[in-house]
Amino acid sequence: MDMLDRDGLTERQFLEQYQDRDYERPSVAADMVIFTVTDAEEYNYRKLPDKELRILLIRRGGHPFLGKWALPGGFVRPNETTEQAAARELHEETGVRDVYLEQLYTFSDIGRDPRTRVISCSYMALVDSDQLQLKAGDDADEAVWFKITYRLLRERKAMTEGGYSKTQEYELRLKAGQEEFTAVVERTVTAGSTWAGTDYTIVSNEGLAFDHAKIIACAVERLRGKVNYTDIALNLMPDLFTLTELQQVYEVILDKDLLKAAFRRKVADLVVETEQYTENAGHRPSRLYRRNLNEA
Length: 296
Known about the structure:
Elements: H1 11-17, E1 27-39, E2 51-60, E3 69-70, E4 73-75, H2 82-94, E5 100-107, E6 118-126, E7 140-160, E8 163-176, E9 179-192, E10 196-205, H3 212-227, H4 243-254, H5 260-267, E11 271-277, E12 287-291
Parallel strand pairs: 1-6
Antiparallel strand pairs: 1-2, 1-4, 2-3, 2-7, 5-6, 7-8, 8-9, 9-10, 11-12
């Protein structure tokens, strides 16, 4: 027997008379923070090149924020999930599929998009730079990899009623050729005995569209956090690599130098040595390693 609601309707009768126009439906977008690690432009064949952490940005070719730089992304189509939309956008912008992709956060501040109410379901992707084939979408002038740095400027802590708060101010700097701009993002963590929360606020912003400085800051924090206790950094590596190259990737993500011996102990179970060595590198050949898929 079908259950009746308070109005005496079965589920079928309720659905037949349901009016979806009774509720405002915000637009939903999938925005992508796509990370890769590349060699620095200055190169000396006698030593390993320095590494740079980069993200993909798109120069907007239409309003709003015409000419500003934005994360790749787009509106979710009626026949796809947000994850499917993110994977589609990733392939359209970079030409790659089947790479590391995880949901980052949902950004839903009122007024974050001047066109209408838009909720952004953001994603983080990690891509080996050797696989990439850049192309800008229909609403973009160009797609460019920007070197990214994200550094702490100042920090303050305070006790609150029932807990504490910690506010950190970070400088987000993005550079590609002659293009260079910064944003300052404030990250505030509040916590009590049974709860905790993190908020991001844009303090200043030179060249990024929408609230994308906030999304990028959130992604860097996520990447740095997970690199300490997972094998996530290996998603940025080619099939074969040296331990020194892997350490460089960890260091460029964390923005700090690591002790060689401690690092090698840390990753010992994450990699497997091969019988292959580097060739024509301008220095003594180094053993090549691959990801330990048993630990993935």
